[in-house]
Amino acid sequence: MRPDVHPIDDIQAALDGAGDQLPESDIPPHTPLLEVRGLGKRYGGVVALQGISATVNSGEVTCVLGDNGAGKSTLIKILSGVVSFDQGQYFVAGKRVKFSSPRQALDRGIATVFQDLAIVPLMSIWRNFFLGSEPTRGVWPLRRLDVEQAQDITVAELARFGLDVQDPHQPVGTLSGGERQCVAIARAVYFGARVLILDEPTASLGVKQAGMVLRHVVQARERGLGVIFITHNPRHAYPVGDRFILLNHGAMVANVTREDIDLDDLTQLMSGGADLDELAHEVEDPPHR
Amino acid sequence: MTAATSARGVPLTPGRSPLVRALSRPELGSVIGAVIIAAFFATQTAEFASSAGIANVLDVTATLGIMAVAVALLMIGGEFDLSAGVLTASTGLVTALLVDQLGVNIWEGIAWSLLFALAVGFLNGILVTRTRLPSFIVTLGTFLALQGINVGVTKHLTDTVQVGGVDEAQGYGAARAVFASTATIGDGQFRVAILWWIGVAVVATLLLIRTKFGNWIFASGGAPTSARSVGVPVGRTKILLFMTTATAAWLVGTISVVRLTSVQANVGLGEEFNYIIAAVIGGCLLTGGAGSAIGASIGALIYGMTQQGIVFAQWDTDWFPLFLGGMLLAAVLINTVVVRRRAEDSPG
Q1: If you count residue pairs, one on A and one on B, with CB atoms under 8 Å apart, how many are there?
Q2: What number of H helices and E strands is found in chain B?
Q3: Do B226 and A120 touch (CB under 8 A)?
């Protein structure tokens, strides 16, 4: 049984008043949270990425679409500070940056949820939530985990993403794929993310679980974060995206807003038009019956 | 966007009922096993449940328990230490040789011995984390090296394989009170090592479940890559854990050398497996990430009760390893099932 007293009484109210949840900032209005201009990266002689220009604004979802090998993962690695770029410019909140570690990106509020989610399945939800940043009280040698606070925050933060945690001791390994994503996203948001980069969060999920993750994407947007949503599935991108960036062979082939494109066009564009027509033809009219 | 569910939102994938939660405690199997074994020998023999019998069982259990708890922490952190058994002899030898050869105060000898143990633990930790080799192999190496040093150095200095005369050292009386005194309750002589064991188990339990470092131990063993990416210093955690088992080996070596007033250069051989056996019977996972200090203590108790129970029942003690092996296999099977229940990917 969980005590009834709880920091968050009404999730909907919390979500409605979401804009004020971001940390204090001195960013002038209308400055994008994140901007890249002509970004490029080579591995030896191979061009992995070139000429990428894009902006990410507060309260917007920017979808990065592309097939395997299109350059999506190189782009995320650059944005999250895992690898450095060798062409172009990268601005965070109007300031030019060049990260040499993910920690630096994180300190600027750029948080990345990679596909492995950085969770420990055998450990409980609340221990995972605070892993590496555990709250403590008391002085050494009596310094100890502030278990009550950690559990309360975990329950409250997950509630803001619409998850009802009955038992914060439940191991993360018993959660569904979508719920694990939620734990990872809520953790990134709680620890000060302004820009949330999600690496294929729906890739290995069924329809229902993917829907749940998309809902979290919307919730993060409603809380005023800029979300970069990497996916190869236009059906997952279209319902939540404000802007769509299409990559192909390391180059940006389109950068369009939602108003400019519908799902069919997006799907068409993404899979390289003709190929898809051919595929559809094959499916509708099998040559050998 | 939040569907009209409860005010708090969508309930998680069903949490576990209190019963399931209790069943997935790592030490539960060992508690049940300990109760059954205690009940069995208490009804089979008159001595087992007497205060002399209990003192006897706890005497065996205490030093094994100290080591099992430290080894359990290391195993939760995802590593093994095969050098721990031989190190109990090495640390005793350091103290005894300093006292016997140089005539130093016994406390000074004990202090140097601690430094020696910490250095060995640090070496184990550095070798494992830097080379990324399995700790099984690395510590097998330090195990053999220490074994050679123990006998070689002792023979070289004393021309025998034994060092004695510890009780003639300055400060021996106080050391005996701290490490080897006894208290008589009924007709049983209870050793002070039992208090050390309980103290070590309590401290280790608090460390595991109530400190940042404890969180890091579970994470380092459970998913080191994930742990690293959220900022847990996995390498440092493991090095400290190797130094912890080495410190435990120092404590046991000191208890033993003060109590016996001499050390055989070849003791401790094979003990390292008993520590691992006790930890596993107590619910530690061989692959790391799960286990408890209480469980390891109960594992040690099961070991002690079975070993002494067989003696009290006047069975042939040759059968003891058979019981031990059976319990070990049963424990491993139970642990695996429990962990699967805890961590298995749920559908969808």
Answers
A1: 141
A2: 14, 5
A3: yes
